[in-house]
Amino acid sequence: MIVRKLNDVQEFPVTQLVYKGQSLSMEGVGIRWLTHKGIGEANYKHNFAIRYFTIQPHCIIPSHDHEYVEGVFILKGKIRAISGEEETVLEPNDLLYVPSWEAHYLENIGEEEAAFICCIDCLGDKGNCMPGVKTNKC
Description:
The protein is built from no helices and twelve strands. By secondary structure, the protein is mostly beta strands. The chain is globular, with a radius of gyration of 14 Å. The protein starts with 11 loop residues before the first strand and ends in a 17-residue tail after the last strand. It has a single domain, classed as Jelly Rolls (Sandwich), CATH 2.60.120.
């Protein structure tokens, strides 16, 4: 068994997103990799990774897509989400489930920090489930 406390996991700023060959600047977004390929032995299988994101007020994660699916569970704040052709406002205890290759965008439309858990599936060599490894294949 592995136990990790959120405050013991280092937060990294997310300052850019490379999508279709373009570098998109970002600010006010942080990520903590709660689980990933580098934690635990082979018996953990590493079929998914869990990440904790924060978005400061009026900051965004630009529209992008990728091969892996992701589930986004809102913990706090108010987030405008666009996924595919649909738009909605997410609040605490809401879940957004994004399939492979569907473009999606998140924006904190509230006046406080927003936070969510993002669970992704690990593909192939599971490189997309390792902090700092750029294998998004966007």
